[in-house]
Queue: 2 jobs
Job 1
Amino acid sequence: MAKNLIISTLVILIAILVGILILTNYDWFSQEWLIGLGIVIGGVVAQGILIYSKIRK
C-alpha cells in the first residue's frame, strides 16, 4: 500500500508541475492556460483527498 501511495503522490506532483509549466508559458486566459489551471487545481484536490484519506486511517 505504501508503494502505491508514493507512486500516486509522485504522479500527482508531476501533473501539478506540468500544469504550472503550462500556466507560465501561455497568455493569460487562453485555452492552454485554462487547461494548465485545471490540471493544477485537479492535482491539488487529488493530493488533498489522498492526504485526508491517509490521515483518516
Job 2
Amino acid sequence: MEKTTNHRALGMAFMVIGVSLSVTFALTLGPAFMGIGAAFFVLGVVFLKKGKDEDQSDG
C-alpha cells in the first residue's frame, strides 16, 4: 500500500511557520533577525509547487 502525502498541507504549514518566525523575531530582536523564518517560507513554497505538480499529473 502506497503512502500518500498531502504536499499542499505541508506547504501551507511551513509557510505559516516561516511568516510567524519572521514576524516574531523581527519584532522582538530587531529587523536584522527577520530572515530566520525565510528558510521555512521557501520550504513551504517548494511543497506547494510539488503538490500542484502532482495534482496536474493526476488530473
